[in-house]
Amino acid sequence: MARTELGAGLLTTLQQLPTSGARAVEVFTTDEGTFLGVPQLARDVPGEAPYMNGGDSDIEAPIYRWQDGRFVEHEALPLPGGEDIEYFEIDGRRFLATAGIRTGKGPYDLDTEAVVYERLAGAWVPLQRFPVFAAKQWSAFSLDSRHFLALAQGVVIDGVVPKHPRESCLFEWNGERFVPFQTFNGQWGYNFALASFGGEHYLAYADHVSGSSVHRWNGETFVPLQTFDENGGRAFRFFEAEGALWMVHANLLKHTTLYRFDGAQFVEMQVLGGPGGRELCLIDGKEGRYLVRACFITGTPKAPAVVPQSEIFRWRDACFELVGDFATSAATDAASFVVDAQRYLVVSNSLSDEIRFRTDSTLYRFNG
Predict the structure, then answer these.
(1) 122, CA 20 to 30 Å: which among 51, 175, 251, 302?
(2) What is d(CA 322, CA 344) in angstroms, rounded to the nearest whole number?
């Protein structure tokens, strides 16, 4: 596929970033500039047999700074077994929440600490540490003047008994720190996503083994609204179109599904792609709305098949139409951002065809 024909001409490759087991991409802008944080799961150990859950997980998360149309290395945070970085602001204060799934080089410890940093005097300073178990992802959101952090975590492995709290949960900001607010019943959490529509607030939770779910805010807490009885839940994204609330759900084991809210439930409307979908990125481009489906692996962790491409869909006539694919390598996340009126896309790649962690992540110009 030619350089400028990626994703049906929507993407032009600009830069390869030398990442290792990259699990997410977080782009954020402050008065200091535009930055990219990349949590990394592990680095390869010389002589070790290929294994996607092996490697040396005592690794850092690079933070790049945007300069002259590309990202340059700027700083790094210690983040063993890195899974996620979430940037957010509260009352002018700037924070980064980090999550890692494990520490060690084998055997590994899934009881770790998740750290929230605050930007003070040009440095990221630890503000609060959380005891977590197989932490996957933070999601920050606000309801009126209340501020929350949602933590998706947990895993089920024979013989592993958590020492730290293992439920996915919500924390609320009390003005100086985050305090426990609500727990969820899932055993293997991956993702939270919030939507506000028609005066109501909805929180979706993706879980690998316990069924993914959507909850509605009742003014005091989130109460169950709908459960999707299937394994493999990875990610949710919401958007508004045609006067309705829509939801996209990526399931690693089955397919990605588009739902429309009918006022009471989310109703399945369309199936998008097959197994392997891990993350979703919605883009409001110059030519319309697009959906990037980051595709990871099929098979099992012990015998994975790296999915060699991800997909781009365009919203048309109340559904998504596949407009192209582009080469990725066990993609784990995608993020879109705008600098000087130009839109870009950055994608994290986590494994090579040989099941090695050292795999470039990629910056593209988005032409749609």
Answers:
(1) 175
(2) 20
- What is the side-by-side order of every strand in the sheet holding 331-339? 11-17, 361-366, 342-349, 331-339
Mean pLDDT for each consecutive 10-residue tract of the chain (368 residues)? 65 98 98 98 97 97 98 98 98 98 97 98 98 98 97 96 97 98 96 98 97 97 97 98 98 98 98 97 96 97 96 98 97 98 98 98 97
What is residue 304's three-state secondary structure?
strand
Return the structure tokens found at 16: 């390869």
pLDDT computed for residue 46 by the predictor: 96
**β-sheet bridge partners, residue 335:** 346
Q: 48: Cβ–Cβ under 8 A, 6 or more apart, which residues? A: 54, 55
Cβ neighbours of residue 292 closer than 8 Å, sequence gap 6 or more? 280, 281, 282, 283, 310, 311, 312, 334, 336, 345, 347
Buried-exposed string 116-125: b where 16+ CB fall within 10 A, e elsewhere: bbebeeeebe
Helices (H), 76-223: none
**112 Cβ contact list (under 8 Å, min separation 6):** 80, 81, 100, 101, 102, 103, 132, 133, 135, 164
pTM attached to this predicted model:
0.96
Set out the domains of the chain in order of their start, with CATH numbers: 20-277 (2.130.10.10)
User: 24: helix, coil or strand?
Assistant: coil
Beta bridge partners of 171: 149, 180
Residue 8 has what pLDDT? Answer: 84
